[in-house]
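re the bet — no i am not wrong, look at it urself. input seq straight from the record:
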Amino acid sequence: MPYQSRGNRRNNVQLGATRVYAGAVPRRIPEYILDAIPGGLAWLALGVVVLGAIYAPMTMMLGAALLGMYSAVRFLFAGAAVLMGLRRIRTWEARDWRKYYAKHANDLSLPLEKVHHVIIIPNYKEDLDTLRTTLDRLAMQPNALDAITIVLAMESGDPDGIAKGEILKAEYDRLFANFFFPVHPKGLHNEIQCKSANQAWAARWARRQLVDEMGMNIHHIVVTTMDADTLWHPRHFEALGVMFALDDRRYSAFWQAPIRYHGNVWEINPFMRLLHAYSSAWELAY
C-alpha cells in the first residue's frame, strides 16, 4: 500500500532553474571530480581511523562508543517503525476504500470514477514470462478494466521489442482500459538510451495519446512508474486512486509503496534471503 510524501523542504529535490535574472553563469564542476568524491571520502575515513588509532586511541574509542550508541538507538526506532508499518498495512488491507472515499470526500476532492492510472513499465530484453507475471498481477486490480492504462515502454535496441509488445497487447488489451507499447527511438538529441530516458519518453508519448488525441483530462491522471518485474499488491491502485482523489495537494505530492524484496526469495542464496529481509524491513521503517 502506498504512503505519501508532500515534497516539502526536507525531502523535496528540485533541479535546475527556469530563468537566470542576473550574474555570471556558474562554472561547471568537472565530472571526474564529482566521481572522485565518494571514493575520496571513503579513503579519508579509513585514513582517519588508522591514524586516530595510532595517535589518539582514547579519542577513537570514545568516537566508536558514541557511534555504537547512536546505531543502537536508530535500530530501536527502526524496529518500532517496522511494527507500526506492518500494523498500518494490515489496517489498509482490511479497509473498504470506496466507503472511505465516501466518508472523507469534500468539495476539493476529485470524483473517484474520474481518476485514471497510467502505469509505465520500462523494459529491455525482458522475457515474456516475466512481463506476463507482471501484467497478470496488474490485471487483478479491481479498477483495471475501467481506470488503468498500461504503457509498456519498449526500447528500439531490443530486436524482439515490437514482437513482444504485439503478443502482450493481443493477450491483455481486453483486461485494461488501454494497452500501448510505444518504442523509445534511438538517436534523440542530448539523450542516451537508459531506463530513465525510456520512462520520460513514454510519459510524453502517453500524454500526447491520452490527452491530446483521446481528450482525457490531464488533471484526473496519476502516473506510476515501475520495474518490469514489480508485483503490486492486488488493491494498490484502488487505494492510490482514493488517496489521489481526496488529497487537495495531489499535484505536488507523490506516493511510494514500501518495497519488499521477496519476489524470488526461495530461489536465491539463504544468506541473501536474510539480507533482503533486512532491506525490506528497513524500507518499511524509513
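see?? Residues 189 and 280 are 39 Å apart (CA to CA). told u. also Residues 1-22 have pLDDT under 50 and may be disordered. so pay up
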